[in-house]
Automatic annotation (TrEMBL):
This is Small ribosomal subunit protein uS10. GO terms for molecular function: structural constituent of ribosome. The lineage of its organism: Eukaryota, Metazoa, Chordata, Craniata, Vertebrata. Keywords: Cytoplasm, Ribonucleoprotein, Ribosomal protein. It comes from Balaenoptera musculus (Blue whale). InterPro entries: Ribosomal_uS10, Ribosomal_uS10_dom, Ribosomal_uS10_dom_sf, Ribosomal_uS10_euk/arc. Its main location: cytoplasm. Belongs to the universal ribosomal protein uS10 family.
Amino acid sequence: MAFTDTGKTPVEPEVAIHLIRITLISRNVKSLEKVCADLIRGAKEKNLKVKGRVRMPIKTLRITTRKTPCGEGSKTWDRFQMRIHKRLIDLHGPLRLSSRSLLSVWSQESRLKSPLQRLKSTFLIN
């Protein structure tokens, strides 16, 4: 049998496009915004479609407690609060390329004095 050329060029297999949702949580807004900007810049350099830096409502945790350890004395109270900031970033692209771009940017930003409390990424397959 002889090889017959059909005139068609071989087509590369299509790469599945995934939605990657990154949730960043921190108590320090400045470092959170810096990491978000660096992640978005790194994703755009890799030609990924970026939707993001969605600012979620600030969660304020409050504790009100008596200043005095015993029940004696004037009734004075201390009020403590901790503000937790949350950002969402959505990336659309191949899973392999997206995870590589995230890891390269994240490893550069891991030297922050006040690191992020948590980085959670959710991989949703469409």
